[in-house]
Amino acid sequence: MSIAKTFLGLLESGPRHGYDLKRTYDERFGHDRPLAYGQVYSTLSRLLRHGFVEVDGIEPGGGPERKRYAITESGVADVDLWLAQPERPEPYLQSTLYAKVVLALLTGRAAAEVLDTQRAEHLQLMRELTRRKAGGDLADQLICDHALFHLEADLRWLELTAARLDQLRDAVGAVA
């Protein structure tokens, strides 16, 4: 996710301090991975340098001065462009799990156990996300659904791969 583009979108509703941007970002998008303050201010500095935001005001505080940032016309145009562009689907063609299965086959280890262990991990995460979804607001429900659909696709792949392990073993010339 582009933090810079997200900040620009959040600033369209009005000027904000870096702390406010971080808090809103974390509430809406960063439940599992909140932003570090350093990342917030380095992103704002970059947006300022590129002319997408401007300092709308400076307020003295107990510590450093608090800058309030506002989006510029260039920033609005950048958000428009970003929102109009579709995201590239991520086909996961360099899968670590696939590499583990092939390496297990190549080294004479039990590839089926690798798949079973991964299946258990996926199912555990699916249970956690289902609980989170049940107690969450609409935003939480939607993000959990997105993750659950991806995990379901992974489970289908795990099942398909398990069914084709003998063929895969032959294809990679693995130890029997």
Automatic annotation (TrEMBL):
Q: Name one Pfam family in it.
A: PadR
| Residue ranges annotated for the Transcription regulator PadR N-terminal domain, each copy included | 8-77
Q: Do you know which Gene3D superfamilies this protein is assigned to?
A: Winged helix-like DNA-binding domain superfamily/Winged helix DNA-binding domain
Signal peptide range: none
State the PANTHER family in the record. Answer: NEGATIVE TRANSCRIPTION REGULATOR PADR (PTHR43252:SF6), TRANSCRIPTIONAL REGULATOR YQJI (PTHR43252)
Q: What protein is this chain from?
A: Transcriptional regulator, PadR-like family
Which organism is this protein's natural source? Conexibacter woesei (strain DSM 14684 / CCUG 47730 / CIP 108061 / JCM 11494 / NBRC 100937 / ID131577)
